[in-house]
Amino acid sequence: MEGRLYGADATDEILLGRRAASDLQAGIGSTVKIGDGTFRVVGIYASDVLWEDAGAFAPLDAVQQVAKKPDSLTVVYVDLAPGATQTDVADAIATLVPTVVVISGAADYGQVDQGFALIDAANVAISFLAIVIGGIGVMNTMIMSVFERTREIGVLRAVGWKGARALRMVLVESLVLCVVAAFVGSLIGVGITRLVLLSPTVSGFIQLAYPPGVFVQAFVVAIVAACSVPCTPPCGRLGSPPWRRCAMSDEPTRGDEPMVHLQGLVKTFEDGRLRAVDGVDLDVAPGEFVAIVGPSGCGKSTLLNLMAALDRPDEGTIVIGGHDLRQRRDLNHYRAEDVGLVFQLDNLLPSLTALENVEVPMFGQVPSRTERAARARQLLAFVGISDRADTRPPQLSGGERQRVAIARALANHPPLILADEPTGRLDSHTSVAVMDLLEGLQDDQGVTLIVVTHDPTVARRADRIVEMLDGRIASTTAASRTP
């Protein structure tokens, strides 16, 4: 034992077991508060008996006062006289004081120790079970976040991001979320425990179960458990559609070749029962504005997706700018530089500003961050919303969002713009402004423009109207090109 025994007449002195002193972070001379009493530590003892080592000894009067039981005792220690046995003493005490429970013998001490050991084991099991449950919760959050971000990942793929880049983005954000959540959750747990210990009704009777080292171990286990989740999106592999890969020349299109050449194009769904695109042949000249019209479900959007390499045909040939898409080595490069996509729902990333949304297709194409920002600002000025560059999509109007989407489609100066119902959710005035912008690209920059639309006023602005019905081209007519 270190220190000394408490004095015979002392009411504020206490002896602490080694484990109790460690839990209370107290040493000889320290002051500890137990219940309503305040005691000065005068000695620290060690015991092989677990519950004794986690306990304390104090004068009887002080213990009765703290326990609020001035007329009763809970434990009496008896030193055996020479020749006396534990059983004889226990029987004598039980006879004299029938209400007292007598604990005697090494076996009984062993049972008490086993009880404390069982409690410790239960605490450890419950703690690690809580870690596992917390890890599963974080895993579920991560998986659900991928479900919720499937559209966002699809947009990134559509504007030319490689699957590995999009996957890295999700993994890094999930890892940061995991570490922060594990750290904050662990701190909250320890903080609540500390607050409980401050309560007068439990102070000194309930101690923190584990030292800081175990907290660190639990924190590390929580991070490892949560980060071990496979983060492959449930929608499937992020790679490019499985086109046949062959060597090819990157020579530019000759002047007499069409910008878009489709031959015998077929795309089926539902195991071939639904022919969304059924034998389509179509040529679009460089700089031409073609409107594709027809009833819902006739295959217009599917045809546009095939031209954008967002899907692959079951049969037929797609040649864009003189290059057969089946032979393109890198379809991500094609989507990033050779074609610009404008969606009906704009599909802007809500967490990014307008400027950052326009920059997205430039990653991997324009290495300089300064150059990306400068080009994005020029494009926003071109579409007439340079003053909204630092605004996020939820704070933009429908027309402004569509203008940002057009600027994004122009990020890498593609020669072909594919627009799927670009005015479908806009009012008539805004629709005219958006179509003026697209038509200006065709007239001023020679961009080839293919627009899918239900709006006859949009179709009449085209050079040619292609009508589809049941997956086939029903008619092709020259438009009047009315503004």
Q: Biggest sheet: strands side by side, in what order?
A: 11-12-13-8-14-15
Helix vs. strand class: alpha/beta
Strand fraction: 15-25%
Ends: how far apart? 99 Å
| SSE topology string | EEHEEHEHHHHHHEEEHEEHEHHHEHEHEE
Count of individual beta strands? 15
Q: Residue-averaged pLDDT, rounded?
A: 76
Percent helix: 40-55%
The low-pLDDT segments are 201-211, 229-254
Our count of helices gives 15
Largest sheet: 6 strands, mixed
Account of the 3D structure:
The strands form three sheets. This protein has a six-stranded mixed β-sheet with strand order 11-12-13-8-14-15, sandwiched between helices. Strands 1, 2, 3, 4 and 5 form a five-stranded mixed β-sheet that branches. It has helices at residues 18-24, 50-53, 60-67, 86-96, 106-148, 150-158, 163-197, 212-227, 300-307, 331-338, 354-359, 369-382, 398-409, 428-445, 456-459, and strands at 2-3, 13-17, 31-34, 37-45, 56-57, 260-269, 274-284, 289-293, 315-320, 323-324, 339-342, 416-420, 448-452, 464-469, 472-478. Residues 201-211 and 229-254 have low confidence and may be disordered. By secondary structure, it is α/β, with parallel strands linked by helices. The longest helix has 43 residues, at 106-148. The relative contact order is 0.08. Helices cover 42% and strands 17% of the residues. The chain is elongated. Helix 5 (106-148) runs antiparallel to helix 7, helix 5 packs parallel to helix 8 and helix 12 crosses helix 13 (398-409). Helix 14 links the parallel strand 12 and strand 13 (448-452).
Question: Which labels suit this protein?
Answer:
single chain; 15 strands; 483 residues; 5-stranded mixed beta sheet; 6-stranded mixed beta sheet; alpha/beta
